[in-house]
Here is the input.
Amino acid sequence: MKFLTKILIILIFLYSCKSSDIRSIELLNLRNSNLSEEKINRKLLKVKDLKELNLSENGLTKIPENVFDLESIEILYLNNNKIDSIPDQIAKLKNLKSLSISGNPIKYISDSISEISSLRNVMFIGHFSDEDREKYKMIFCSRIRLIFFTEGNNANGLKECF
Here is the structure.
């Protein structure tokens, strides 16, 4: 019942807001809202001043396309979805300071993430091959504090970054 109530409140809010009201939202928490990528894309078309977005626990298989149009976004939570890659479009988020992607089966992170000069925190829990770990060290260690754990929660691999 709580889940349906949360969804109803979010939907009523999004549908009742005028376009000008939606544009000025700075924080949007859609965590565990059971929204599809398509529905998220439609909602995010109107939100342009967003600073913080939480799309965790929605069963997403990829980052919704319209997320990459959110030029003001500084903090992005994508935890506990089914996202397996961080695509080249991530570089469009020029103001991104923190990216949290824990609990996703990440197999690929685009090198273009290194183009985001504002990015300081990337947080994820997962298991990577030694080759991938070395690649991500080169991308992130110069200026990003990277929290990196194996599936068993033992600190591993990127201790030199922090």
